[in-house]
Amino acid sequence: MMTLYRRRSVVLALFGFLASAAVATPAVAEVGAVTVVFTKGGFIVGVGGGQGVLTFRGKRYPFTVSGMSVGFTIGASTTKFTGRALNLRTAGDLAGSYAAGGAGGAIAAGAGGVQLQNANGVILQLSGPRVGLEASAAVGGVTITMQ
């Protein structure tokens, strides 16, 4: 038969083991570096596409970007975005559909910035210079496909 002291010791040891197991297994999300060259053009409906590279855990992962916007869009522009992808667990988490909305524009050269999120919880924070003649006030989205 166990003494009261032994029962308490066993319960405390079991509680300590369970608490340490819960602390030792958190889901760790990481940050990756992203570069994208995106070309967009249109009148009313804007269509664009481009290519990019995710650098994650020392490896490079190429991807393609395609997108469309509906609203006021006129002209064409090319933007070279650089930034980061937050909340990555694997490189494949970058793939998916991202919704965006907002207004922007470029005449000859300017700057653009965007923050997007996909269903995997990945947040893209991108900015970069724009070249071209384009004005937009549209709602749209982009789709990233890993190559």
List keywords for this structure.
147 residues, Lipocalin, four-stranded antiparallel beta sheet, 4 strands, elongated
Summarize the structure in words:
The chain is mainly beta and about 150 residues long. The protein has a single domain, classed as Lipocalin (Beta Barrel). Helix content is about 15%, strand content about 70%. It contains one helix and four strands, in the order H-E-E-E-E. It has one helix spanning about 5-25; strands at about 30-55, 60-90, 95-115, 125-145. The chain has a four-stranded antiparallel beta sheet with strand order 1-2-4-3, with no helix packed on it. It is elongated and about 40 Å long.
Sum this structure up briefly:
With 147 residues, the protein is mainly beta. The protein has one helix at 4-24, and strands spanning 30-56, 59-88, 96-117, 123-146.
Helix-strand blueprint:
Blueprint: H1 4-24, E1 30-56, E2 59-88, E3 96-117, E4 123-146
Antiparallel strand pairs: 1-2, 2-4, 3-4
Major β-sheet annotation: 4 strands, antiparallel
Strand order of the largest sheet: 1-2-4-3
The CATH class, by name, is: Mainly Beta
Order of helices and strands: HEEEE
Number of domains: 1
Class inferred from helices and paired strands: mainly beta
Overall mean pLDDT stands at 73
Helix content: 10-25%
Beta-strand segment tally: 4
Task: State which percent range the strand residues make up.
Answer: over 45%
Termini separation:
65 Å
CATH architecture: Beta Barrel
Shape field: elongated
Task: Report the CATH topology name.
Answer: Lipocalin
Low-pLDDT residue spans: 10-26, 101-109
Radius of gyration: 23 Å
Total of DSSP H or I helical runs spanning 4+ residues: 1
